[in-house]
Amino acid sequence: MSETVLHTVGLRRQFTLPRESLFRPPETVFALNGVDLSIQRGRSLGVVGESGCGKSTLARLCMALDTPTAGHVEVLGRDLSQLSAMELRQARAQFQMVFQDPYGSLDPRHTVRRIVGETLEALAPRQGDGTSGVSREEAIGQAIDAVGLRRNDLDKYPHEFSGGQRQRIAIARALVTRPSLIVADEPVSALDVSVQAQVLNLMQELQQDFGVTYMLISHDLGVVDYVCDEVAVMYLGRVVELAGRAQLFAKPCHPYTKALFDAVPRIGAGRRSGADRASTLQGSVSSQTRQITGCAFADRCPRAESRCLDEAPELRRIDDGHMASCHFA
């Protein structure tokens, strides 16, 4: 049985907004509402959904960059919330993150050598490496080699590179500690389409070479289809469908997932039938400052009934390896 690298249990996150009036209590944003996910070693999980559904909040919690309101995150079987500051610092060698914007995530005042090596300095400042027997300089060189850049690029600055090359530097920074898990938050959305495939191919090669496990946050179904083994669809802080990539793309079960697929333009597609148009999303996303008792998607769902407004559907098994939180899936 393969090892579980990432496991989240009942993950919730609430944010309190600044008070708008002295006479009204501050509002609360319910960003995550009980997320349970697992990723096995060497696999890739894609997390998709509209903006504001909680994808980036989930990523930050999995990286211990934020603290959950309830629930916990386990990486390689260790509950991150139970680790001391020193233990968490040492554990970070096993999980790293690649951020969305390769222009904003790299310090323009630092050389590539310092950018890639700063992770080692943060994890093992006294020893200077933390890579089990490999010198700091060699670890940086190996990471640069792995992402397809040259070692004579190490003394250059970020402004001397293209967007795709900058994202390769960001990936090298994440890879330098040889982590088991990399969380990539929209890693190619800021890049030209012609460069996106190169970066995605690189990520797949690194997975094969180093056995990296990925959580890929994206709004682009094409990216998820190309890279991921499993897909979790999120809506208003909840996982509404979870399945293998082939299963999900062949037969989506949740009305929200169907609507997402229906919204993707297709070359040569004619006018949609009435049944297809019925899956088009109606209205707008509900306010995240309101605690929803029933199905979060009920007010936009073409199949909603009175039961959906009062009873929240459980994420239940529809088929082997395919789960959906819909009363009628």
What does this structure look like?
There is one protein chain. The radius of gyration is 21 Å and the shape is globular. Strand 9 (230-235) and strand 10 (238-244) form a beta hairpin. An eight-stranded mixed β-sheet has the order 6-7-8-3-9-10-12-11, with helices on both faces. It has a four-stranded antiparallel β-sheet with strand order 2-1-4-5, with helices on one face. Helix 3 packs parallel to helix 5 and helix 5 (163-175) runs parallel beside helix 6. The protein has helices at residues 55-62, 85-91, 112-123, 136-146, 163-175, 193-210, 221-227, 245-250, 255-262, 274-278, 306-310; strands at residues 4-16, 28-40, 44-48, 70-75, 78-79, 95-98, 181-185, 213-217, 230-235, 238-244, 316-319, 322-324. The relative contact order is 0.14. It is 30% helix and 22% strand. The chain contains eleven helices and twelve strands. The chain has 329 residues and is α/β, with parallel strands linked by helices. The longest helix has 18 residues, at 193-210.
